[in-house]
């Protein structure tokens, strides 16, 4: 079910004080400058204190800042949803807080508490409320970032760490609802054992832009990466976890330190169990993945998206797509919870505002 199909486009010729002046029906997944952002700073040896909402602006950084010199930085991604009855909902922001804390420990950085993190996300959403799209027209994507902002050259400690968050209204990450066409990347690897693949490091993404661009030029939607140790097992997409369905068994690659522990991933696993499927986390050889009945990917941006085909060394394998797939059922169920169309019996959503 496509939520946008039940809503008429918001008129853009007549300003509405409730909304920013955006053509919501044309909304893509990309940067849109909004009004405000959140900033908090922490000196070495201290704890993060409450930050503040400030007008959106460029950040000033010392050229020797740890994030610029050594890549000491993490980010998160989550969304605020506007419901039909005017509420604003977040989806499991505490899980993003726990994940950024895990990354901060790996990067030897101070980090905000769970309460501080969730409070910051709520503040950003409310401070940019008019940028939250109408129901069915998109979401407000919130990007928290934690990075070494103090100058450092060759030795510890980093004198200052910054925690900030901004927001952009976004449409669907994958515009093609018919399913993704993936290319198996058999040369470049996304992550290595004992590396940073299991945390949301800013350094995980640009190293694989080159093969991603090449795949796009060849007409593919995304890349399916293999493990670095053997080059035989599937891991994840550029920015999404992956699942396969065979019979009544749903499988996803096990978290061994090279795969990001996606929040949508754990929700989908729970929903699959609710639907009566057996769920496994394990090593999945590519040859077995290609024999699946159905495959799909999950993520904050992707939500749940079917994979229509996977191409490996010029051999293309197709998979089931459409409204009768498990992916479609998962997408509808998850989207209904996130947008408040059904009762949230799992306690996954956080309401932050009852005012229209």
Automatic annotation (TrEMBL):
Listed Gene3D superfamilies: 3.30.470.10, D-amino Acid Aminotransferase, subunit A, domain 2 (3.20.10.10)
Family statement: Belongs to the class-IV pyridoxal-phosphate-dependent aminotransferase family.
Organism: Camelina sativa
Keyword Transferase listed: yes
Cofactor(s) required, per the database record: pyridoxal 5'-phosphate
Keywords: Aminotransferase, Pyridoxal phosphate, Transferase
A molecular function (GO) term: transaminase activity
Coiled-coil annotated spans: none
Identification of the protein by name: Methionine aminotransferase BCAT4
